[in-house]
Design brief:
Layout: H1 2-25, H2 33-38, E1 43-49, E2 55-57, E3 62-68, E4 74-80, E5 92-100, E6 103-112
Parallel strand pairs: 4-6
Antiparallel strand pairs: 1-3, 1-5, 2-3, 3-4, 5-6
């Protein structure tokens, strides 16, 4: 009878460890531009979009844009996919991906727009 409890607890512990390792692997931390350039793992960066440095290649579905962090540093971002409908209204953009060969290759982008519930200035 005690062997069943020991085996049951062992199986539960294995599932807990496996779950914790899987969860940790899927985390993508927010980092600054400088740190993103030095890491080879997937990370999240956030910055203000620079409208005059934005273009979209309709044929290849590639979005090219630059972000500026609070320190004024710029980073070129390339996103393969459909341009979000509200991209031009974005105040900030979160890009998730990796820095490679002089640009940030984004797998996902999250557009942060001003709230429609904020008062107008």
């Amino acid at each position: 009878m005690k062997l069943k409890y020991v085996v049951g607890i062992g199986v539960i512990l294995i599932f807990i460890v496996f779950g914790a390792l899987s969860f940790r692997k899927n985390l993508t931390p927010y980092v600054g531009f400088k740190e993103a350039k030095s890491l080879s793992t997937s990370v999240q960066i956030i910055g203000e979009m620079i409208p005059e440095e934005t273009s979209y290649d309709l044929e290849n579905h590639k979005l090219y844009f630059s972000l500026k962090d609070p320190k004024g540093e710029k980073m070129k971002v390339v996103y393969q996919g459909v341009k979000p409908a509200n991209f031009e209204q974005a105040t900030n953009i979160v890009a998730i991906g990796k820095y490679q060969e002089g640009e940030f290759l984004a797998d996902q982008i999250l557009v942060k727009c001003p709230s429609k519930y904020q008062g107008e200035n």
